[in-house]
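Give me the fold.
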Amino acid sequence: CNKFIEGGSHMANSNITKKALAESLKELGSTRILDKITVADITEHCGVNRQTFYYHFNDKYELLAWIYNQELVIPLTKDLTFDNWGEKILELLVYMKQKKQFFMNTIKSNNDFFSVYLERIFIELFNKAIKDLNLYTHLDKKMRDIYARFFAYGLTGIIVDWALKGMKEGEEELAQLLQDISFSSEKIGHELYLYHKNETDK
């Protein structure tokens, strides 16, 4: 991490400081698990004092959350549609592969923490799919949210498992598999609903 020089405009430096701390954690996280990284390690690595760190973040987990939000949630949910979500998933997997050791080490330290952010992406995706494809209009909002979470948890589990096993499977292959599973699940779910509806109406 390039040493950060403190001082100057607060507005100009605030985001720069966060990015410097984020880069520091990513670099450290590429060599050891998060549990073995301290706030002192992060600040010393990029030349920021601990008081500055705590001005921006409460702890290293909040910094990690900021990284996930800035580099996963925001870019992957921007302009997300059901038509382009396969491309978005591929972008996610390629990015994770580029930062392989960082993601493996942070997921190993706290599996659920990463999952929460990934689930947010997939829940938004499936809510968009339900709306765009006009599926499950027979369900109320509560039930649609349950469907979205069901799909999101499944995809998240597959990606976390892929990461923990060393990301050996190709990104394009896995992205296509996830897309196929999602389309099939949507179709099966809708067909089951129609079947039960027809049985009930008899």
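The chain is about 75% helix and 0% strand.
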